[in-house]
């Protein structure tokens, strides 16, 4: 057999192989089935706030300056004033549900169900808000604690994060009570007071209290991800992302120690130089990027709804996975879905320009993806730096393991997706990963189904308003939130 014949046959076989591969990709893409829930007519009607009462009550709640600051006790008087306002605003809730204070300022309500064998539901939100940065008050279109209702919005700190959730939960339960609704299963409402700070006296204590009473919850619904627009290439519809897990946290201190001295006679390798080399090595060798649940689950839900050419890429990750990982790794927000991320956030050294420090320190903040652990993070840092003279220590009290991934194949998640579809029929529903922390993580010991979802639509320009200037929520979004929580209660309360 001549060399030309061999080449021709090799080329023919290669072409055949490529053709088969292309065929497999096309067939798999065409056969992929949608994971979206079948839409059912909603049982909770749309709310119309013609008199502005519901929007006005949220505005009033915003006026209470229930601010959390790290290292400072809360201003109890503001929280207690708001509690009295809630009692007055929602008389049916406070005459029907049991209420108890936890850690003085957090609140736990119990709506007794008729079936003691049915696992309870818990709706969770937090009362506190972040401070307004000093010097930025003049940049607000409306004063940050005015709670003004204007131009189709409710304005002020907490309107998005997270008094809207708290107030919408109260409004929904008040409405259900007015309809004569009697729940089959017990329903808990929980409102922590320190989510934006240390989060050790509010939701954590509520979760511990429920555990001590032997209570196992069916779903827990906390704030978290939302309905987003324009953030996912190849998807024209909004995407409702349900957080089924959240990242862990570790602050790792890296320290170089030496003798110090006068800067006029420096050693060949200064402590700051050694520390800089260590930080550079860490940036050059991050922890591995992988498509794991819940990020891989998110793509499973979104892929069938994508347009070409992204649809075959997402559908056939067995083939295009390396390319996809590389592409996602280029963006800051998408990289966080693939990796345990690291960010040096604090540096310290000499107190004076002409003094060599005796110790140079850096604090690195890690956000740990599900599947990794705090121990793995510390070991990774030591291994990558590879210098026994550099001290590596995890800061006490900073270690939070990533939360377990709630099962997206469970009946609870199915009910969750159907509830979202009934209120947001225009949206694609998908599981997602919370890259920040929430109160929901405290309830993992008492629930296998912890969801982090706040039922409003976030436009791209809304993202900067979270913890930022000109925080506000659309009145129409807020009314949908009320409807969502009422629908959530009825859907999960229904017999299965």
Structure description:
With 496 residues, the chain is of the alpha+beta class. The chain folds into two domains: 53-230 and 404-493, Zn peptidases (Aminopeptidase); 246-394, Alpha-Beta Plaits (2-Layer Sandwich). The chain is built from 14 helices and 17 strands. The longest helix has 29 residues, at 3-31. It is globular. The N and C termini lie far apart (70 Å). The model is unreliable at 6-13 (pLDDT under 50).
What class do helices, strands and sheet pairing give?
A: alpha+beta
Please outline the major beta sheet: 8 strands, mixed
Please indicate the percent range of residues in DSSP E strands (runs of 2 or more).
15-25%
Determine the CATH topology of the largest domain. Aminopeptidase
The CATH superfamily label of the largest domain reads Zn peptidases
Low-confidence stretches: 6-13
Brief rundown of the structure:
The protein has 496 residues and is an alpha+beta fold.
Distinctive features:
single chain; 496 residues; alpha+beta; Aminopeptidase; Alpha-Beta Plaits; 2 domains; 8-stranded mixed β-sheet; 4-stranded antiparallel β-sheet; 17 strands; 22% strand; globular
Question: What topology does this entry show?
Answer:
Blueprint: H1 3-31, H2 53-63, H3 76-89, H4 91-96, E1 98-102, E2 106-111, E3 121-126, E4 149-150, E5 153-155, H5 163-178, E6 187-192, H6 203-212, E7 217-228, E8 239-246, E9 248-257, E10 261-262, H7 271-284, H8 295-302, H9 310-315, H10 317-328, H11 332-338, E11 341-348, E12 355-356, E13 359-368, H12 374-385, E14 390-394, H13 411-423, E15 428-434, E16 447-458, E17 472-474, H14 475-493
Parallel strand pairs: 3-6, 3-7, 7-16, 8-15
Antiparallel strand pairs: 1-2, 2-6, 4-5, 5-17, 7-8, 9-13, 9-14, 10-12, 11-13
Helix pairs in contact: 2-5, 5-14, 13-14
């Amino acid at each position: 057999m001549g060399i030309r014949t061999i080449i021709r046959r090799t080329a023919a076989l290669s072409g055949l192989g490529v053709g088969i591969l292309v065929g497999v990709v096309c067939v798999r893409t065409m056969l992929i089935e949608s994971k979206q829930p079948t839409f059912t007519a909603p049982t909770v009607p749309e709310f119309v706030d013609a008199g502005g009462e519901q929007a006005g009550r949220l505005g009033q709640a915003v006026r209470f300056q229930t601010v959390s600051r790290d290292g400072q006790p809360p201003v109890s008087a503001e929280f207690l004033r708001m509690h009295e306002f809630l009692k007055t605003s929602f008389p049916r809730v406070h005459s029907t549900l049991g209420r108890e204070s936890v850690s003085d300022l957090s609140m736990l309500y119990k709506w007794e169900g008729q079936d003691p064998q049915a696992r309870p539901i818990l709706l969770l939100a937090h009362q506190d808000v972040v401070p307004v940065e000093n010097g930025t008050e003049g940049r607000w279109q409306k004063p940050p604690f005015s709670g003004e209702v204007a131009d189709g919005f409710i304005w002020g700190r907490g309107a998005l994060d997270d008094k809207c959730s708290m107030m919408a939960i109260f409004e929904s339960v008040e409405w259900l009570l007015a309809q004569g609704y009697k729940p089959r299963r017990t329903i808990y409402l929980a409102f922590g007071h320190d989510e934006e700070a240390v989060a050790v006296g509010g939701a954590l204590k509520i979760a511990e209290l429920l555990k001590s009473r032997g209570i196992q919850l069916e779903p827990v619904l906390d704030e978290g991800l939302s309905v987003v627009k324009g953030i996912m290439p190849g998807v024209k519809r909004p995407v409702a992302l349900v957080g089924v897990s959240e990242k862990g946290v570790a602050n790792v201190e890296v320290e170089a120690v030496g003798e110090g001295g006068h800067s006029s006679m420096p050693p060949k390798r200064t402590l700051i130089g050694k520390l800089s080399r260590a930080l550079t090595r860490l940036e050059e060798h991050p922890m591995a990027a992988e498509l794991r649940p819940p990020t891989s689950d998110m793509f499973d839900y979104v892929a069938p709804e994508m347009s070409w050419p992204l649809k075959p890429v997402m559908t056939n990750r067995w083939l295009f996975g390396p390319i996809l990982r590389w592409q996602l790794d280029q963006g800051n927000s998408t990289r966080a879905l693939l990796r345990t991320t690291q960010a040096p956030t604090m540096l310290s050294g000499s107190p004076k320009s002409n003094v060599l420090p005796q110790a140079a320190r850096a604090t690195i903040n890690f956000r740990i993806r599900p599947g990794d652990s705090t121990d793995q993070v510390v070991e990774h840092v030591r291994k990558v730096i590879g210098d026994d003279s550099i001290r590596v220590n995890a800061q006490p009290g900073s270690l939070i393991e990533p939360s377990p991934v709630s099962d997206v194949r469970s009946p609870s998640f199915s009910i969750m997706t159907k509830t979202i579809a009934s209120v947001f029929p225009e949206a694609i529903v998908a599981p997602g990963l919370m890259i920040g922390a929430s109160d929901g993580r405290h309830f993992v010991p008492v629930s296998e189904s912890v969801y982090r979802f706040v039922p409003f639509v976030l436009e791209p320009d809304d993202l900067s308003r979270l913890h930022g200037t000109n925080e506000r929520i659309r009145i129409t979004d807020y009314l949908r939130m009320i409807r969502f929580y009422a629908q959530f209660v009825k859907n999960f309360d229904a017999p299965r």
